[in-house]
Amino acid sequence: MEKGSKLLTLLAIMGGIILGISVNSTQPACAKSPIKITKMSYNLKQSGNYVSFTGNNALYTKAAPLKGAKVVKTKQQLLELNQSKAGQDTFMYLRSAYTNHHTVYYKVMSFDRKIKGWIYAGKISDIQSGLVHYAKDKKTVVGGINSFETLQNSPLNDLEKNEFYHLKYPGSKNNGSELLYQLPFWCGPDGKTKPNMKSTIKYRHDVFIIENAMTRTREGDRWLVIHDLSNTNIVGYIKDGSLIPMHSVPATEGITVNYVDKATNRPVKSVIVPFAKSPKQAGMNLKTSFFDYNGLPDGYTADDDSLGFKGNSATNAIKGATLNYFIVKQVK
C-alpha cells in the first residue's frame, strides 16, 4: 500500500505539471498585432475643411506606423508653417484612414499643392468635433491637427454701414482692387480665386454698398463684400481701399427711402439713395440688393416677409421717387 500511495502521488504531481504546461500554452500572446489600415474614406481632390498643426505629430508619406512611412515635415516645421503669412501654406483635409488599433489618420494638402501627407488625428474613442479629436476635458487636442479659418470677421464702422460708393479703380487687372471675387486670394482651395468678371469698367457709374468685411487670417489685410445696387448680379470681394464715397445728392437726383415701423406704420428715418439705372430698364431695381444695406435705424431689422419693400414698388424706381421700407424692432 505504501508503494502504491507513493506511485499515485508521483503520478498526480506529474499530471499537474503536464496540465499546467498545457493550460499555459493556450494563453494569448501579449504583443499587439501589426498595424494595418482597415477602412479608408473617399479621397477628395480638395475640400472646405481647413486645418492647422498642433506640433504633437509630424507629417508622413503614409500613416506613421506603417512600414515605409517617411517624414514629410517635422513637428517644428509644421509649427513654422502655422506662422506663415502666405495663404498658400494653409492646409485642407482630403481623406481619413482607420487602423486595427482604433487610431485615425488624416491626409492633408497645402493650398498650393506642394505639400501633402498623413498625420495622426487621434483614436476612434476620442471626443470629436468636426475633424478635431479632444481628450476627455473636451479642450485638449490630442492629435496633430486643429481647425483653421482663412477669414476673420472685421466689423464695419458707421461710415461703411451708411455710405454709398463708386469703384475707385474700375478696370480689368487681376490685382484684388479692380475686379470682384467670390473669395479673397488664397482663402479657399482654388488658390488665387478667379474674378467674377473680366472688367468693371462698365460699372464705374454704378452705386455700391458694403455688406460686410473680412480680414485674411494669414496675410492680415482687409477685404470688403460689396453689392451693386444698380445691378443685382454684381457682388463679391474687393480689397479695402478700392471704393470711393459718393457725394450726397438731393432728393430730386436720387430715390428717397423712408424706413417705416411695420407695427406703428410711422416713419423712423429716411435715406436718399443716389440714382443709377439698372440694366434693361429706365429705373433702378432696389428690391433685393437694398436688403443688404446696413444703414437701418438702430434696434431695427428689415421685415423678412417683404424684404423691406412691399410689392414691386422698388423693382423699377425712377429718379426722384419715394419708397417705404418696412422694418421691425429686433427681439432682445
UniProtKB/TrEMBL annotation:
Name the chain's protein. Uncharacterized protein
Organism for this UniProt entry: Lentilactobacillus kisonensis DSM 19906 = JCM 15041
